[in-house]
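Subject: Interface between my chains keeps coming out wrong

I've been trying for a while to get a sensible model of this assembly. When I model each chain on its own everything looks fine, but I need the whole thing in one frame so I can look at the contacts. Pasting all components below, labels as-is. Any help appreciated, I'm running out of ideas.
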Amino acid sequence: MNDIIDLSILQIGMAYIFVLMVLVVVRVRGIRREAEIVISSVRMTLQLILVGYVLVYVFDHPGPLSTGIIIALMEVFAICTVLWKFRAKLTNPLRRVIVFSMCLGTLSCIFYFLLVVVRISPWYDPRYVVPIAGMLIGNSMTGISLGVQLLIEGMTTQKSIVEEALVLGATPGAATREIINSTFDAAILPTINSMIGMGIVFLPGMMTGQILSGIVPTTAIAYQIAIMLGILGAVSLTVIIMLQLGCRTFFNHQDQLR
Amino acid sequence: MFEFMDVGYGSMLSVPDLRIGDEQITSLVGVSGSGKTTVLRLLNKMISPTRGKIFFQGVCLEQINPVQHRRNVVMLSQVPVIFKGTIRDNLCVGLRFQERKAPEDTALNRILKDVRLAKSLDLNAARLSGGERQRLALARVLLLDARVYLLDEPSSALDDDTEEFIFDMLTSHARQTGKTIVMVTHSRIIARRYADVRIEMADGKCVQRACPHE
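Reply #2:
Try treating it as a single job with all components included. I did that and got this:
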C-alpha cells in the first residue's frame, strides 16, 4: 500500500503530451488559444514547483508565524482575485464587505474545522492547516465571486421591483429578499452539485492525492466527508455574510436606493 | 400636513414654499419633466432634498423613520411593477411587506370591484393588460389603508369612462375616510373637477396654486 511510485522528470515530461494534443486540436480547428494553453501550462508548472519548495521548507520548520503568513497570503490572493474581477463595478463599501465576509467566513470555518473537527495539535501544524485552508478559501472565493456577480446583476435588473417594494413600505431587507435568496441559492449550487457527484462521478483531488500517497482509502474518505462539509459551511457563511451586508451598500442611511 | 421650506433637488426642482393640506385632494399639474413626480418621491421619502427641508405634520422628514413614513404615505407609481404571482399575491404584497395580515377573499374581491377589475383572484397577474395592471396596483395601494396616498398619473392607461369611475371612487373614498391625496395628472379637467387644490408646475417650479372650488 505504501509503495509509492516516484515520478521522474522524464515521466512528468511525458505527461506534457496531453498539452501537445490540445495544441494540435486547437491549431487544426483554428481556435486561437495556443498562447493561453502554453502560458497556463507553464504557469501551473512553475507555481506548483515553487509551492512545493515552500511547503517542504514550511513542513521542515513548522511554526505559528510561517503558517499564519501562508494563510494570510492565501486570503489576500483570494480577496484580490475577487476585487480585481469586479474592479469597475464595486463601490468602496461593497469592497469592504467582500474583504470582511471573506475573512470572517473562511477563518471561522478553518479554525473550527482544524481545532474542533480534526483537533490538530499544535494548532499551526502546516501539514493540516495549509491544504485545508487552501480548499476552504479557494471554494469560498469561487462562491463569493458568483454571489457578487449575481447581487450586482440582481440589484441592477430588478431595481424597479426593489423600488416598488420600498414605495409600498418594505424595509430594505424585505425589498431585496428575493434577490438575496436566489443569489445565495445560485452561489452554493456548485458545492451542492459536487457533493451529489462525489465518489460516484469523480474522486476529489484531496482524496485522490491521499490515496496515491499511501493512505488507506477509508481514512481518505473520512477526511473527504469532513472537508466537503467544511467547504459547504465556509462557502455558505462567506456568501450569506456578503449578501446580507452587501445588499445594504445599495441603500443610503435613509433607506433610499443609491 | 406637508410643508416645503426652500426645497431643491439638484437642478430638477426648486420650491421655495409649498403647503399641502391635511384631508385634502391636491393635484399637481404640468407638462412632462416639470418636476411633478420628483415632488411625489420627495413626499414619499424615496429621495431626499439636496437643499432645504420638508416637514410632515411639523416634523422634519429627515427625523422620521423612512420605512414608517412610507407606510403612512404610500405611493402609486406611474408605471407600477406587477410582482410574480396571482392577482391575490399582488393585492397582498404591500401588506406582506408591512408585516400585516392579508384580508379574506371577500374583502379582496370588494376592492377589485371598487377599481372595476372583475377578475379571479387566482389569475396570473402577468396576463393583465396595461390598464388592468394600473387598477390592480391602485387596489393594492388602497388596501394598505394609509393616511396619505400619492398617486402618480393613476389613470394614464385608462379609458375616459373608467378614468371617471376611478376618480369618483377615489375622491368619495378619501372624503368619507378623511384621507389625504396628492395626485399627479396631466389633465387640467381632472384637476379642476376633483381636486381641492391645484398646483401648476413648470421647469421644476410651482408656478401657480389655485383652489378650483372657490
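Reply #3:
Confirming on my end. Residues 160-177 of chain B form the longest helix (18 residues).
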